[in-house]
């Protein structure tokens, strides 16, 4: 047939080989997509393929995703919650939007979000280390109060005194006598966003948007215990497996370990 069509035999072998590669690529893309909670778009899938030694353009990845009906959860429009009143504390905004930190636990930020459990509102609190965007503490509960935040601190591994500053918005659950006592006990400094300015706590806001898209909006929680188990599983995936564009497409744990190795090398030298 090659002789009749006057084409080189190498052309046939190239096309056959390319078809096999295309099938393998499709399998790889589908596997990455579903292993990562259907949250990855072309940027992150390209990064994960690169880890496997596969070089492919985002355009081709997008085409394959369309062919396979793979739609990232980020195509769903987010729901904007109502604004709530804030306290008038005079505590300064020490963070001052310096979200890129070079030291672990120098600034830990937090916020709350809500989730339906059997048609009743419950709340999630997470503590985020700005150094590597790692969720270092988390809690859930039926009430939006200081106890919820305190339980999140109780899940932090290691000595709480390693946390230098705790930054949040001006919600009453964050600025109250109980929280002041906890922070004073562990010698943690306090930083509050300016009144009515969510941009001062942008990383926490962005993390909750991610959680709602990848986790909360994708599930139906049957009980508080069910929510606790699923949140634990999500946080584990978020820290150990989910790659972040702001971290050079590393996971938070990978970023922290890489930074630690660099510090050891510098000290050794």
Which features characterize this protein?
single chain, globular, 14% strand, alpha/beta, 5-stranded mixed sheet, 269 residues
Describe the structure.
The chain has helices spanning 2-5, 9-35, 42-51, 58-67, 146-154, 177-185, 202-214, 224-240, 252-268, and strands at residues 107-117, 120-129, 134-141, 165-168, 189-192. It has a five-stranded mixed β-sheet, with helices on both faces. The protein has 269 residues and is of the alpha/beta class. It is built from nine helices and five strands. The radius of gyration is 23 Å and the shape is globular.
Which helices and strands, and how do they pair?
Layout: H1 2-5, H2 9-35, H3 42-51, H4 58-67, E1 107-117, E2 120-129, E3 134-141, H5 146-154, E4 165-168, H6 177-185, E5 189-192, H7 202-214, H8 224-240, H9 252-268
Parallel strand pairs: 1-4, 4-5
Antiparallel strand pairs: 1-2, 2-3
Tally of DSSP helical segments: 9
* Low-confidence runs of at least 5 consecutive residues: 82-86
| SSE order, one letter for each helix or strand | HHHHEEEHEHEHHH
Sheet-strand content, in percent, reads 5-15%
The largest β sheet comes out as: 5 strands, mixed
Q: How many DSSP-defined strands? A: 5
If strands are numbered along the chain, what order do they take across the biggest sheet?
Answer: 3-2-1-4-5
Instruction: Quote the average pLDDT.
Output: 88
Radius of gyration: 23 Å
Query: How would you describe the shape?
Result: globular
Straight-line N-to-C gap: 65 Å
Helix content: 40-55%
- Which structural class do the helices and strands define? alpha/beta
């Amino acid at each position: 047939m090659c002789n009749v069509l006057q084409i080189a035999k190498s052309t046939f072998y190239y096309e056959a080989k390319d078809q096999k590669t295309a099938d393998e690529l499709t399998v790889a893309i589908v596997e990455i997509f579903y292993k990562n909670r259907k949250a990855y778009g072309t940027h992150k899938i390209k990064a994960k393929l690169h880890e496997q030694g596969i070089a492919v353009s985002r355009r081709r990845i997008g085409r394959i995703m369309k062919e396979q009906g793979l739609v990232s959860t980020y195509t769903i429009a987010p729901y904007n919650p109502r604004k709530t009143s804030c306290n008038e504390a005079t505590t300064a905004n020490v963070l001052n939007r310096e979200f890129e930190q070079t030291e672990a636990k120098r600034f830990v930020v937090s916020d709350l979000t809500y989730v339906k459990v059997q048609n009743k509102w419950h709340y999630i609190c997470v503590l985020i280390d700005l150094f590597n965007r790692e969720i270092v503490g988390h809690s859930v509960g039926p009430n939006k109060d200081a106890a919820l935040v305190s339980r999140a601190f109780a899940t932090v591994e290691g000595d709480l005194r390693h946390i230098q500053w705790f930054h949040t918005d001006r919600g009453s659950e964050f600025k109250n006598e109980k929280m002041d006592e906890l922070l004073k006990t562990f010698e943690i400094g306090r930083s509050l966003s300016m009144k009515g300015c969510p941009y001062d706590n942008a990383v926490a806001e962005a993390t909750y948007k991610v959680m709602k898209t990848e986790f909360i909006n994708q599930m139906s929680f049957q009980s508080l215990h069910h929510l606790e188990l699923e949140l634990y599983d999500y946080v584990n995936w978020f820290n150990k497996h989910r790659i972040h564009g702001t971290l050079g497409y590393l996971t938070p744990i990978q970023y922290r370990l890489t930074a630690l190795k660099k510090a050891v090398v510098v000290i050794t030298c």
